[in-house]
Fold this sequence. Notes:
This protein is α/β, with parallel strands linked by helices and 110 residues long. The chain has one domain (11-104). The chain has helices spanning 35-52, 55-59, 80-95; strands at residues 11-14, 20-26, 68-74, 99-104. The longest helix has 18 residues, at 35-52.
Amino acid sequence: MTIEQTDKIDFIGENESGNIVLTVSDHLEWDKENEKLLLLQEKINSYLAFIESDEILEHYPNSKYKAYIINIVSKYKPTEEAEKFLNLAKETIIEAGFNLKWELLEDTNE
């Protein structure tokens, strides 16, 4: 699954700290029209709905009473505008009681 499937959870698991990590798989380049930002916003909203509705407990029962982290793994470095969006999204998600992280996918071809 990928960022383009905005209604799907790409990956879910538990990190070494016991937090539940919901990962967004982002393979798209950043575009000037900000279509990717809109996809990312939809994807993040789907992840939040999945958590807040407790649907996550149906699929991952061990997640009850654990911290949730939405982790975006991108192939391409965010543009300046994308970084602003990610920072604003992180603030909003933290206010909702969760966390947001993003990282660049390491190129294994080097």
